[in-house]
Specification:
Blueprint lengths: L4 H16 L4 H18 L7 H18 L13 H20 L4 H17 L3 H17 L3 H17 L9 H10 L5 H18 L2
Helix pairs in contact: 1-2, 1-3, 2-3, 2-4, 3-4, 4-5, 5-6, 6-7, 7-8, 7-9, 8-9
Protein name: Tetratricopeptide repeat-containing protein
Organism: Bradyrhizobium erythrophlei
């Protein structure tokens, strides 16, 4: 039994990490949620290490949610709406902790993007558009021009799969801008965007 809240959080994070390798999304999401509940219930009861413990909760809730986002790769595996909703809740929880812990605009932007990414997966295109717009503003504030463009790419995907009116560059144009920017991760971002478009275009076909 851990003597401190941070020690307990470390043990729980190890358990969540093990489940991330197991391939059972529902079990991972439930464990991450329950572990977060356990730590948050302990806040206030033990002094001094709450921030460290909550930082771990923020990390594992984000990672567990991200692992369950279907846009990373094309798969014939059916997408579970229940898992998407549970993962979106974890992403929101992680974002709330980013804000509570004041981890800065870059982390907040990524948290907002992740919630929007689940709205994209759930077919909530209006909500996804709003969140990607908010994430873009945060990336601008964080002076992260490459991630600004990456987020614009996701906004373009929403417009394409949601059959929305043009309001900005299409995905091909965004990818050209990323390629021209000379970003270290530019090729990976372009591949990521192309894959996400294929996943969600197939889902809607």
């Amino acid at each position: 039994m851990a003597d401190t809240l941070a020690g307990l959080a470390g043990q729980l994070e190890t358990h969540v990490k093990a489940l991330r390798r197991a391939g059972d999304d529902a079990a991972l999401l439930a464990a991450a949620r329950d572990a977060a509940d356990q730590i948050e219930r302990g806040c206030g009861a033990q002094d001094g290490d709450e921030r460290e413990a909550l930082t771990m909760v923020q990390r594992w809730t984000f990672n567990a949610a991200a692992d369950c986002w279907p846009g990373w790769s094309v798969s014939d595996k059916p997408i579970s709406p229940d898992n998407l909703l549970a993962a979106r809740e974890l992403a929101e929880r992680s974002l709330g902790l980013v804000r509570t812990l004041e981890l800065g605009p870059l982390r907040e932007a990524t948290g907002v993007w992740m919630v929007g990414a689940f709205d994209l997966a759930l077919g909530r295109y209006h909500e996804a558009s709003q969140l990607f717009r908010e994430a873009r503003e945060q990336y601008v504030a964080a002076s992260a021009p490459g991630l600004v463009l990456l987020t614009e790419g996701y906004a373009a995907i929403v417009r394409q799969v949601g059959k929305q009116a043009a309001d900005g560059d299409d995905l091909d144009q965004v990818c050209k801008r990323i390629a021209a920017g000379g970003f270290e991760d530019g090729d990976e971002w372009i591949a990521q965007l192309r894959t996400a478009l294929e996943v969600f275009a197939r889902k809607n076909s």
